[in-house]
Specification:
14 strands, alpha+beta, 8 helices, 6-stranded antiparallel β-sheet, 6-stranded mixed β-sheet, 386 residues
């Protein structure tokens, strides 16, 4: 199954249905064995049957505990397409699974206790969407059908688990000569996007000289040289024939208008002035921060459009999936940051320091001044000068 770039948290329904399926075999064993023993004899036999059923159910629970601790799987997890993992996306381990299940068992003192715990992820505001028992045990529950399986791809912070969004559609690849933006992982969030490097004008191998031996595989590409230096090197090596004396000119001819190589006109070379980019500090709702120095795209797996060039790609892993893959376009400004919603699913808004809120219309930039808060999906960040 092709892996998705981002992790997806399991829904409350998936968690509740999976636990119900896990508990079903225990209930069936206990009731079936008790009923069979009750058919044979009286009360003593019925008690023996209940004891035998309880032992079998306990054995099943022991097997289930060990299996989930080592693989994140249970019958219910397999049926619903979810996995239990540790906080870093690996196998949860015996102690966390035991603590997690013990809390579910203790909550059974109240009839609806286990149900409330299993759906408590609905009230979790952080990007992991954990239930209360998961917070105590340090575990996560992820949907491996809708997203990546961290148990098979190196955990939450595995890099290169899947190709960036732009690689899936050839038409969205940057055109030749345009520089792709580097991927910036927002601190505190798993980044699985593959870094993109700017294309270089000297990545192609120069055309081979006629008669020259082919370069062996893996040989380094020679650095480009000017035509004048190449000619001088060839003359020194004896590769060019001896010059033939030219006949005496009949009359003075006008000098040929031959363009000189840029390397020969040093007096015409000017140093281009470089303007320092304005830096804006973007601090997210959980404390992570990044400095935007020019243009940037923010989302779960941001990708540029054809012919579009940006300075940064901010890969923001939102397990709640309220953030679109390419949610916002950011442009640093001396007074703050220009924010443009890129047709996101859940929308965006800017709230100033004075409490004025403006919902963003798709593709219309709005200035978020320093001190304001930008909301995108269920997440937000504040703007300040770097």
């Amino acid at each position: 199954m092709a892996s998705s770039t981002n992790l997806v948290n399991a829904t409350a329904f998936q968690r509740l249905a999976a636990k119900a399926l896990d508990a079903l075999p225990s209930a069936v064993l206990l009731l079936a064995v008790t009923w069979l023993f009750s058919l044979v004899g009286g009360d003593d036999t019925r008690i023996l049957g209940m004891t035998t059923g309880a032992v079998l159910a306990g054995g099943y629970a022991l097997w289930l505990w060990i299996w989930e601790a080592g693989s994140g799987k249970t019958p219910g997890n397999l049926a619903l397409g979810i996995r239990t993992t540790s906080g870093n996306g690996h196998a949860p381990g015996l102690v966390p699974v035991l603590l997690r299940n013990a809390l579910l068992g203790v909550s059974g003192v109240v009839v609806v206790g286990p149900v409330v715990l299993l759906v408590s992820n609905l009230w979790d505001k952080n990007h992991q969407r954990q239930g209360w028992h998961d917070k105590v045990a340090g575990t996560l529950v992820v949907d491996v059908r809708a997203g990546r399986d961290p148990l098979l791809t190196g955990g939450i912070r595995a890099s290169g688990a899947a190709a960036p969004e732009s690689s899936a559609d050839p038409s969205s690849a940057p055109s030749a000569g345009s520089a792709a933006a580097p991927v910036t992982a927002v601190p505190g969030f798993p980044s699985s996007a593959v870094p993109q490097t700017a294309s270089s004008p000297f990545q192609t191998v120069p055309a081979a000289v006629a008669g020259a031996p082919a370069a062996p595989a893996g040989a380094p590409v020679p650095a480009p040289v000017s035509p004048r230096r190449a000619a001088a090197a060839a003359l020194t090596a004896g590769a060019l024939p001896a010059p033939v004396p030219a006949p005496a000119p009949a009359a003075a001819a006008a000098p040929a208008d031959v363009p000189q190589h840029p390397d020969d006109e040093l007096e015409m070379t000017r140093v281009a002035s470089r303007h320092r980019s304005t830096g804006v500090l973007v601090q997210f709702d959980d404390g992570a921060a990044v400095v935007v120095t020019g243009t940037a795209l923010l989302g779960r797996n941001p990708a540029t459009k054809p012919q579009e060039t940006v300075g940064q790609l901010l890969d923001f892993a939102d397990m709640g999936r309220s953030v679109s893959k390419t949610h916002l376009h950011l442009q640093a400004d001396p007074n703050g940051v220009w924010v443009t919603d890129r047709n996101s699913t859940n929308g965006s808004a800017v709230v100033t320091a004075q409490g004025l809120r403006e919902e963003l219309e798709p593709l219309r930039p709005v200035l978020a001044p320093a001190g304001s808060t930008v909301f995108f999906g269920d997440r937000s960040f504040t703007v300040s000068r770097a």
